[in-house]
Write a structure and sequence with these properties.
Helix content is about 50%, strand content about 15%. The protein is of the alpha/beta class. A four-stranded parallel beta sheet has the order 2-1-3-4, with helices on both faces. Helix 6 packs across helix 8 and helix 6 runs antiparallel to helix 11.
Length: about 325
């Protein structure tokens, strides 16, 4: 029989607009870019820039990009995350109850906590879906969950899954995903792309870059790649200040002058989304081929791949309180 009080597991990713429209994208970006843990600038100055310039200009442009990846299931990130949630529930069994939430937008953190409480959970394991820690992702998710918990009558005992950037199961799942994607492709060079971050955040102590480097090193070792066979890049730069380098947008066209076939993986993204489907697969692939490259192979994110779900379940079991 299942335990009387199952352990609640809350998977949290960044989030997505509710629809690929300028209005929905504007609402989402206002919440996302308005988070002081994401954009660390003077709040008054940033509010004026965000609402007076950035949102009016960026919302319609971003809406067109979302339209290019939107599916019959809606947002790719939300759909893939729901598949992960369902697969993890099956893998963990009745001792656990698993719910999904997004830091920004829907499904909300409060909604996820409501679901876990309805299903009988009194202990909570928060699982930020970011293997590499950053204050802009895991940090703000944990803050938001703790704030939500503080408002509730029912007090769930909270644990937070530690960063798992070099976990053996996670690395093995990445390697399997990449091998499957390149089984019939002669690859000249491998490109590992992580979401970018302003350099000053790292100078101020954010460990994100070190975690990305550690993931890349572990994955390259798992794949048996010599150092000259792969590169690390950072994508999705926003604004004018320096972000972590090298920039994916500069490296990809440069690789085309040396390598005709490049395979790309985004290890920091556990679910396919706008950044992987449009920015990497489409836009960067176009730039690579325009510069003379021929084969641009992008491995899907881990999504609900069985090897990843087993690895994630192992992480959950290892972090959850013993019963």
């Amino acid at each position: 029989m299942p335990p009387a009080t199952p352990i609640g597991v809350l998977l949290v990713n960044v989030g997505s607009p509710a629809a690929p429209t300028p209005a929905a994208v504007r609402r989402y970006l206002r919440e996302f870019l308005g988070d002081p843990d994401v954009v660390k600038l003077n709040r008054v100055v940033w509010w004026l820039l965000l609402n007076g310039i950035i949102l009016p200009i960026r919302s319609p442009k971003s809406a067109k990009l979302y339209q290019s990846v939107w599916t019959e299931h809606g947002s790719p990130l939300i759909h893939n995350s729901r598949l992960q949630c369902a697969a993890l529930q099956r893998e963990l069994g009745e001792r656990y109850v698993v719910a999904l939430a997004m830091r920004y937008g829907e499904p909300s953190i409060d909604g996820g906590l409501d679901e876990l409480e309805r299903r009988g959970a009194r202990e909570l394991l928060l699982v930020p879906m970011f293997p590499q820690f950053s204050g802009t992702t895991t940090g703000t998710v944990e803050k938001a969950v703790r704030k939500a918990l503080s408002r509730r009558k029912t007090k769930l005992a909270l644990r937070v899954l530690a960063p798992h950037y070099d976990d053996r199961g996670y690395i093995a799942a990445l390697a399997q995903r990449l091998r499957e994607s390149t089984a019939n492709v002669a690859v000249d060079h491998y490109l590992f792309s992580f979401h970018g971050l302003p350099e000053r955040y790292v100078r101020d102590g954010d460990p994100y870059r070190d975690h990305c480097v550690a993931t890349m090193a572990a994955l390259a070792a798992e794949l048996g790649l010599a150092p000259e066979r792969y590169s690390l890049v950072f994508q999705s730069r926003f604004g004018r200040e320096p972000w972590l380098q090298p920039y994916a947008a500069e490296v990809a066209p440069a690789l085309a002058r040396k390598h005709k076939s490049v395979a790309v993986m985004c290890p920091g993204f556990t679910a396919d989304c706008l950044e992987t489907l449009e920015e990497i697969r489409e836009s960067l692939g176009h730039d690579f081929k325009a510069a003379g490259g021929e084969v641009w192979t992008v491995a899907p994110c881990l999504n609900d791949h069985p090897r990843w779900i087993r690895a994630l379940a192992d992480l959950v079991r290892g972090a959850a309180p013993a019963s």
